[in-house]
């Protein structure tokens, strides 16, 4: 179908959404009914709907129809994410609250992804996993976030996906900080890779419970490891404040 025709049908679908005041999460009419309503062929409609899905206007759920997608609103980050960023800046211990929230959300996204992921979803997850192996910490941390977001997308649950996207910047900051600390400990980093692979393989195999357990195990490991790192760092700081060490350092510097 010529691009101009696809654009025209897509524009008319947008207009229909506005005219009928279809809100985010609401389902469009069945394909046959919508094609007749717009006076276009079903093939023309399919291409137009695919365009709108790619643009983020619609969400297509396999076997469930096409829905108006939740749009990211500017106030979302300002009113929800920004205060959390401020808390993290003032007290890094709030990162553990983020990990607990991720536990609750991502266990569900992994479960649903295993149940609903398409071949394209699985390929995207695989590519993101491979990118996490980059030797560049920044590239690897970005790929890590995209790996988790790809799983959320594969869940085909608009609420879970929008929640993950709304916290994208916060999640990126948390993951980057975690990876930078763990990257320096090869055995720990190797465990992260194994855990990501286990999550991916469970989703590809369609084993929802295994995917959920693998994700929970992964985030539990991250939580425990970061906590151990923090405790070790605090212990070292206490040691350096011992009077004997202070005097010894003073003599060495004199």
From TrEMBL:
Alphabetized UniProt keyword annotations: DNA-binding, Transcription, Transcription regulation
Domain HTH gntR-type: 3-71
Top-rank lineage group of the source organism: Bacteria
InterPro entries referenced in this protein's UniProt entry, alphabetically: GntR_C, TF_FadR/GntR_C, Tscrpt_reg_HTH_GntR, WH-like_DNA-bd_sf, WH_DNA-bd_sf
Pfam families the UniProt entry points to: FCD, GntR
UniProt KW Aminoacyl-tRNA synthetase keyword: no
SMART domains membership: FCD (SM00895), HTH_GNTR (SM00345)
Cited Gene3D superfamilies: GntR ligand-binding domain-like, Winged helix-like DNA-binding domain superfamily/Winged helix DNA-binding domain
The keyword Mitochondrion belongs to this UniProt entry's keyword annotation: no
GO MF terms, alphabetically ordered: DNA binding; DNA-binding transcription factor activity
PANTHER family documented for this protein: L-LACTATE DEHYDROGENASE OPERON REGULATORY PROTEIN-RELATED, TRANSCRIPTIONAL REGULATOR, GNTR FAMILY
Protein's name in the database: Transcriptional repressor for L-lactate utilization (GntR family)
Source organism of the structure: Klebsiella pneumoniae subsp. pneumoniae (strain ATCC 700721 / MGH 78578)
């Amino acid at each position: 179908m010529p691009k101009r025709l696809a654009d025209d049908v897509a524009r008319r679908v947008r207009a229909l959404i506005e005219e009928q005041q279809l809100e985010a999460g609401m389902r469009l009419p069945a394909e046959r009914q919508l094609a007749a309503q717009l006076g276009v062929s079903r093939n023309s409609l399919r291409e137009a709907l695919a365009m709108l899905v790619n643009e983020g206007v619609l969400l297509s759920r396999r076997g469930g129809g096409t829905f108006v997608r939740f749009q990211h609103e500017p106030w979302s980050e300002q009113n929800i994410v920004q205060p959390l960023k401020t808390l993290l800046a003032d007290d890094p211990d709030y990162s553990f609250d983020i990990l607990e929230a991720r536990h609750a959300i991502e266990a569900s996204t992994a479960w649903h992804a295993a149940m609903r992921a398409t071949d394209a979803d699985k390929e995207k997850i695989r590519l993101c996993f491979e990118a996490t192996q980059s030797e560049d910490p920044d590239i690897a941390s970005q790929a890590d976030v995209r790996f988790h977001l790809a799983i959320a997308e594969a869940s085909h649950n608009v609420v879970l996906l929008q929640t993950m996207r709304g916290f994208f910047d916060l999640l990126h900051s948390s993951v980057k900080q975690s990876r930078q600390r763990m990257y320096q400990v090869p055995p720990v980093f190797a465990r992260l890779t194994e855990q990501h692979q286990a999550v991916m393989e469970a989703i590809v195999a369609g084993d929802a419970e295994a995917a959920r357990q693998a994700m929970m195990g992964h985030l539990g490991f991250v939580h425990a490891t970061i906590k151990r790192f923090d405790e070790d760092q605090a212990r070292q700081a206490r040691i350096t404040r011992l009077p004997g060490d202070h005097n010894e350092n003073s003599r060495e510097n004199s």
